[in-house]
Amino acid sequence: MRLLAAVDLGEGLESLVESARFLQEGLGIPAELLHVVPTPYFEALGRRLPHLRPGLEEALSRMEAEVAKTLVDTGLRARVLRGFPAQVVAGEALKSRLVLLGQRGTDALEVLARGGLARYLLHRGEVPVLLLPRTLRGVRRIAVGLDDSPASLSAFRVAEAWGRALGAEVFGLHLVSGQGGCCFPTYLDPETLGLADVLARAKAHLEALLKATGVVEVSKGEEELDLLRLAKAREADLLVLGSKAKSTWRHRLGRMVEVLSHRSSLPLLVVPEATVW
After folding, report:
1. SS3 category, 7
2. Arithmetic mean of pLDDT, 237-265
3. What pLDDT is stored for residue 246 in this prediction?
4. Burial class of residue 220, CB neighbours in 10 A (0-12, 13-18, 19+)
5. Are strands 216-220 and 169-176 parallel, antiparallel or unpaired?
6. Which residues 6+ apart lie within 8 Å of 61 measured at CB?
7. Distance CA 221, CA 229 (A)
């Protein structure tokens, strides 16, 4: 199995390559770069205007060769495939332990990665996806967004495995909101408890689920970005969330994943519920 980094030749290429190198060494899993040449338009054009087909094929072949040379020069394994990018990346993801997507640039694939491609992969829920708004050069502290769902517990176990491999501290963060907020504790009755009691009971509840102590911080928070602020305040280098996908229902991913997959300034690892690392 491999770490699959979906790349184009835009401004975020070097950042994604550097992150892939770091994880390849730290996790002990070979990384591979994948570039997808989006050919459906050219194929349709060739069918409609057959006299253009030879020239289009020649141009595509030259493009593939030049892209392959550029990627091989990074020193990582690389492949160039043709097709519809989301479908090709999703198919290759099934043969991977992890998919890396860059999110820092304005080029086509990175814009798609912030929207359609990331959402497509996350909703399929078949492999962890690491969204990289910046280069991941080192990991000292890993924060895991926790609730009492099996998805977040699976995410914590994956984070523990990464922590052991990378020599990083792993800790859980749990937000408690009022009713109507992002993180209303359905396993407690905050209307009959004071805030201090709710926070203490939530911490004890989650630590019992994790079968660990001293790893969970519970804090008041009313919106999803409060989790990001808390992780940054605790100097986390990586934020991990669990996902209940697979489903096409928009909020099956969870509001936290929906919001932070677009707005996190920290590298964000989204772990499907069934993942075993």
Report:
1. coil
2. 79
3. 53
4. middle
5. parallel
6. none
7. 10
